[in-house]
Specification:
CATH superfamily: Ammonium transporter AmtB like domains
Mean pLDDT: 97
Number of domains: 1
Low-confidence stretches: none
CATH architecture: Orthogonal Bundle
Structural class: mainly alpha
Number of helices: 15
Strand content: under 5%
Helix content: 55-70%
Number of strands: 2
CATH topology: Ammonium transporter fold
Largest sheet: 2 strands, antiparallel
Length: 405
């Protein structure tokens, strides 16, 4: 039977997750140089259009249709055939199936948009559109099926409450692969590399944090105690991670960085995502501390290695998603989400989580790298040096973010 409260809650949660993509656009837009603001913001916004079309045509069906050998779904739900107002009986027992469709659609939209922060300032819009479509079909949809749609990882016992592996690991690892393929940005002598508009970064973080309550809480697919726990854990982890990152960077860099604090918050929100509906609040505190410290160290490692992940997608989302997905197997409590972790004596769950993370990581990295090589044979992935120096906004889109004389 349809429960109006559950349906309303999940629909509002879907709207909150939808808001996260514009939030991401502002977050990334503030971090880049001003000559590339529109380009990276457009890369997020265009995902809302392209991925929605993919999801409607066959993406949802391939992710959540009847399982084929544990690898992919079938075509039973193409063009939303059979996706109506009755509950599916599998994906939410008290909400219309169409509600589950739109909630999952918002996850599919933001995931490839996350990757754009890694190759900011140097990838052509044409090649990005090809990448957006191909990456959704080859990486996001299969991984979503493996873990949420009845695929082999789900059958193996792997769990991911709201997208630690499906969203953050897949996008974060793909970001690192793209950095290795595309190479470093072209910088003029003495060119300022710092964020051009930190107020945009703050606005973006606020929208992301707000939307994350729907991202994690809505994944309970009902307005129940699990959703309430996910809400609380989300806020605690983000807050503790923000404080942790702030003070570690303050000691290391000799200044209290606003951008650092905001980045730390996002790291905490990402790391708690796979665990939000499985753990108690005290575990969310530990996850927040781990996010603020480990992700900060990952960013320092990236800098030392010379990897030009422009907006630290790998260090925040990749590392955060990997560690958070593993920690589910440590802190999960059966009384909350129905499974026990390592602390409760369930060693098997911990080992399953590690294996699932390993498979997801290797698959996303390898396929992303190969995909970029194929796209580069069709059209150059990277813009010319002249376009990069002049800025992608004016060179490609013939528009400017700021027309103030």
């Amino acid at each position: 039977m349809i429960n109006s409260g559950d349906t309303t809650f999940v629909l509002i949660s879907a709207a909150l997750v939808c808001l996260m993509t514009p939030g991401l656009a502002f977050f990334y837009g503030g971090l880049v140089r001003k000559k590339n603001v529109l380009t990276i913001m457009m890369q997020s916004f265009i995902s809302m259009g392209i991925v929605t079309a993919i999801w409607f045509i066959c993406g949802f069906s391939l992710a959540f249709g009847h399982d084929i050998k544990g690898i992919i779904g079938n075509f039973q739900y193409v063009f939303l055939h059979g996706v109506g107002m009755a509950p599916s009986g599998v994906y939410g027992h008290t909400i219309p199936f169409i509600t589950f469709f739109t909630f999952q659609q918002m996850f599919a939209i933001i995931t490839p948009a996350l990757i754009t922060g890694a190759f900011a300032d140097r990838v052509s819009f044409k090649s990005y559109l090809i990448f957006l479509v191909a990456w959704s079909f080859l990486i996001y949809i299969p991984i979503a099926h493996w873990i949420w749609g009845g695929g082999f990882l789900q059958k193996m016992g792997a769990v991911d409450f709201a997208g630690g592996m499906v969203v953050h690991v897949s996008a974060g690892v793909a970001a690192l692969a793209s950095v290795f393929f595309v190479g470093k940005r072209t910088m003029l002598p003495k060119e300022d590399e710092t964020p051009h508009n930190i107020t945009y970064v703050a606005l973006g973080t606020g929208l992301l944090w707000f939307g994350w309550f729907g991202f994690n809480g809505g994944s309970a697919l009902a307005a129940n105690s699990v959703a309430a726990m996910a809400f609380v854990n989300t806020d605690i982890a983000g807050s503790i991670a923000m404080i942790t990152w702030l003070f570690i960077s303050w000691i290391h860099e000799k200044r209290p960085s606003f951008v650092g604090a905001l980045t730390g918050a996002v790291a905490g929100l990402a790391m708690v995502t796979p665990a939000a509906g499985y753990i108690k609040p005290w575990a969310a505190v530990i996850i927040g501390f781990a996010a603020g410290s480990v992700c900060y160290l990952a960013v320092q490692l990236r800098t030392k290695m010379g990897w030009d992940d422009a907006l630290d997608v790998w260090g925040v989302h990749g590392v955060g998603g990997i560690l958070g997905s593993i920690l589910v197997g440590v802190f999960a409590v059966k009384s909350i989400g129905g499974i026990d972790g390592l602390i409760a004596g369930n060693t098997k769950q911990f080992m399953v989580q590690v294996l699932a993370v390993l498979i997801t990581t290797v698959y996303s990295f390898v396929v992303t790298y190969v995909l970029l090589k194929v796209i580069n044979r069709i059209t150059p992935v990277r813009v010319t040096k002249e376009v990069e120096i002049n800025g992608l906004d004016d060179s490609i889109h013939k528009e400017q973010a700021y027309n103030i004389f």
